[in-house]
Amino acid sequence: MANPAFGFIMANVLDKGFDFFLKSDFSGFEDGEWVAIHKDRVISHGRSLKTVVEQAKGLVPPSDFLVSRVKKTASFL
After folding, report:
1. pTM of the model
2. C-beta separation of 56 from 44 below 8 A
3. For a designed S-S bond to 44, which of 18, 36, 48, 58 qualifies (C-beta 3.0 to 4.6 A apart)?
């Protein structure tokens, strides 16, 4: 049986990461780089999605970070 609190926790984590993503200036990152966001900071970034995710998983649980690709014209979640 699923834990109903888990949905609330996930939504809260994603809300904080997404808010940070929307408000942040990613001009210091290269076009096409992946970023892992935890709360209000980038915890990992790089060209390889696999590497970025593995580094982020070493810092926080996988359910606690958001990953996006940096695009100079638009960013994708």
Report:
1. 0.72
2. yes
3. 36
- Domain count within the chain: 1
> Residue 67: enclosing H or E segment and its boundaries?
strand 66-69
In a domain, 60, yes or no: yes
Question: Is residue 34 packed enough to be buried (19+ CB in 10 Å), middle (13-18) or exposed (0-12)?
Answer: buried
Domain extent at residue 54: 4-69
In a domain, 76, yes or no: no
Taking only the tens place, the pLDDT of each residue in 16-65 is: 677 777 778 888 999 999 999 998 889 999 999 999 999 999 999 988 88
